Amino acid sequence: MPTPISPGAVFEPERWGLPAAAVDTLADRLHQLWTRFRACFTTTTRDGSDQAWVYLRGLLTMTTERNFANIARRVVDPADDGQALQQFMSNSPWSAQLVLHQVQTEVAATPALQRGGVLLLDESADEKAGIHSAGAGRQYNGRLGKVELSQVGVFLAFAKGTLWTWIDGELFVPKDWFTPEMTDERQRVGLPPGREFATKPELGWQMIQRVRARGVPFEVVLCDDLYGRSGWLRHQLDRARVRYLADVPVDTQVYLTQPVLGVPVARGRRGRPATRVQVVNGVKPVEVRQVAQRAETSFRRFQVRDTERGVLDEHFALRQVWTLREGEVAQEWLVMRQEELGTSYALSNAPATTTPAQLVDWKCRRFGIECSNQDAKSELGWDEFRAQKVAAWEHHLALTVLASWFVAQTKVDWAEKFVRDGSLAEELEVPTLPALSVANVRELLQAVMPLQQLSPEQARRLVVKHLVERARSTRSRRKAQLRERGPT
Q1: I need a labelling partner for 3 at 20 to 30 A (CA). Which of 235, 282, 307, 406 fits?
Q2: What is the full DSSP assignment across 235-263?
Q3: In this structure, is the dihedral angle defined by the CA atoms of residues 92, 93, 94 and 100, taken in order, positive or negative?
Q4: Strand, helix or coil at 82?
């Protein structure tokens, strides 16, 4: 018989590692973070750190409509029109890379993150109403599942267990933006003159090199099939001795017997001699989905880990295969996972001695990619961004990364300082207790850093201000139309 539980016992915050003193100082913790980073927002002529503080608070404490004007009104003053904040985000030359660099340095210096971390490489698309935002164009939007007018970013997250933080990102700019016809548009949105077209895998490789140079510790790079299908990217990672496990499409070709490359020897005098390197020992490639269907491929059940939805318990098959990457033969692990919607596949350059349990664990941890991107959008306001210039996109990225690092660092510190009651899991009859979510930390922060509330009189004046601005905008458009039409 289980021990009876007092009705209120499991609801005591202290037992969950949430003492009142910790929550009371959460605002101070955020201010300390801003203090550490405030030099990143200073230029040769201006200190913009106060505006960075406003924007950071808006991302973490507001729930909707986190645009420049609304952030300024809710965080600073109901009468603030957000012009100073927009200037800071869109036109000020402070370096977003300095912020990202410092976040990466702090991640690297955190003792609790030294082992067991992974890098998650993925993209995220935001639907756009027009083509005037930097990099906007008709391109695949994974969120919508179709080609649509969108702006796409490529992001790198660091994850360990249930903890994650974005640590880098790059705006993907489609190839047609670099044509002569788009020169004026590139200048209008502030695309650097020296920037050249780069594919998404190339942007991902640039970011991975940056975080390695800054000492971010990780075991493996995980990515979806858009990046895994790039033999070039897998080749770069392998040459740099970076371990990866990359999802690949079902029609990816592999060899079950090691192929030998060479130039075929001519069998007679007729015809031109062969010059192209090719497989010369007669072995043929097969698609990974065909490997899964072969009689000798044996799927077995792995109990990966406990989750809030129950035990993660699925069937996997593993075997070593050979692939051709950038004209070279490479030996890789093929990891096959039977899922509800079908079988998924991944390739890894992990050593032949890697245990099946390790490969299976890595394959399952890609779920963190979806969590990190979803939290960035729904909890930190990433998809509420409404600006057109490259600088604004990069500045929004830097402050979103900083917000996600604040949450992650809070979770790390609290887990070390405020240990949970070990008997809670037994009382609740679960194997592990749920971790603090991004939403949980934000709720606590909102309680100690309340937003500005409008009085009825302030609301009246604000509505009148909006009406006046709309009327003036209409007047300006009418005058412009009259000038275009000329005298009648």
Answers
A1: 307
A2: HHHHHTT--EEEEE-TT-EEBSS---EEP
A3: positive
A4: coil
| Residue 448 burial (CB count, 10 A) | 15
β-pairing, 221-223 with 163-172?
unpaired
Q: What is the CA radius of gyration of the chain?
A: 27
474 vs 468: CA distance, rounded Å: 10
> 108: burial class by Cβ within 10 Å (0-12, 13-18, 19+)?
middle
* Number of helical H runs and strand E runs in the chain: 17, 14
Q: Side chain identity at 28, as an amino acid letter? A: D
Looking at residue 381, what is its pLDDT?
86
User: Tens digits of per-residue pLDDT, 303-335?
Assistant: 876 665 666 688 999 999 999 998 899 999 999
CA distance 39 to 45: 13
267 falls within a domain: no
Beta bridge partners of 333: 320, 348
Domain membership of residue 227 (yes or no) is no
If you average pLDDT over every residue of the chain, what do you get? Answer: 88
Sequence length of the chain is 488
The span from the CA of 237 to the CA of 247, in Å, is 15
73 inside domain: yes
CA 422 to each of CA 196, 338, 440: distance values in angstroms, whole numbers, following the listed order: 54, 35, 21
pTM of the model: 0.88
Range of the domain at 88: 9-92+384-468
Coil, helix or strand at residue 108 = helix
Is 186 a member of any domain? no
The residues that bridge with 159 in the sheet, in sequence order, are 118, 164
Domain count within the chain: 1
The answer to whether residue 266 scores a pLDDT higher than 70 is: no
